[in-house]
Write a structure and sequence with these properties.
Number of strands: 6
Bound molecules: zinc ion
Order of helices and strands: EEHEEHHHHHHEEH
């Protein structure tokens, strides 16, 4: 068996002090923790089966990517809805995100919710936002997943009112539906004004 010391970051090696010779093992690992293979000969830290470790980190990488894809998928969906003019301001966004996150498999299923808490960088979001008594995994994951999406979401604001999200473009300016309409209206009036002037001059 090969081991790798995470403490002194040694290369994988088959030389280590076997578990039977490790002293005070009971006080050095807590329940639920991975059982070590033995002790590092260099620094004395507990070392683990390297192949096991490799397999676990590969599996963990897959689960991490899976979670990131869920967050990115939500960000993309909401960004598309903003661009389409279906979500126009912060209130809309709040409501839509709440609804989308609430219906996400990632939140509904307990095992997926647990994984969300493992892979989210915002696993403390629930306590920070709501405090209070210990919620269930789905509630914890809701807050974490919600915040992960929020952090990646970067909607373009309307350049005219700076309050609504932009879903239209006018003269290379990003505008909300309302401001777009009034620019079109203004342009039309100016156009009409000009043609009236021309008529007057004749
Ligand atoms: Zn070591
Ligand atoms: Zn606007």
């Amino acid at each position: 068996m090969n081991v790798k010391c995470r403490s002194c970051d040694s290369k994988p090696t088959d030389k280590f002090k076997p578990l039977e010779e490790v002293k005070d093992l009971g006080t050095r690992i807590s329940s639920g923790e991975e059982v070590p293979a033995g002790e590092c000969l260099k620094c004395g830290a507990l070392v683990h089966d390297y192949d096991d470790y490799e397999r676990l980190s590969r599996a963990s990488g897959v689960l991490q990517r899976d979670y990131e894809e869920d967050v990115d998928g939500m960000v993309e969906m909401i960004t598309d809805e903003i661009k389409a003019g279906e979500i126009t301001d912060q209130d809309d966004l709040y409501q839509r995100m709440h609804e989308a996150v609430d219906g996400a498999q990632r939140i509904i299923y307990t095992h997926e919710a647990k994984l969300a808490l493992v892979y989210s960088k915002n696993d403390e979001a629930y306590a920070e936002e709501f405090g209070g008594e210990m919620p269930n995994y789905s509630q914890l994951a809701f807050a974490a997943f919600h915040r992960d999406i929020q952090e990646r979401l970067d909607p373009t604001m309307c350049e005219d009112c700076d309050k609504a999200f932009a879903s239209k473009e006018y003269d290379a300016d990003d505008l909300c539906e309302d401001c777009y309409e009034s620019r079109v209206e203004d342009a039309k009036e100016e156009e009409e004004g000009r043609s009236t002037t021309v008529k007057v001059e004749e």
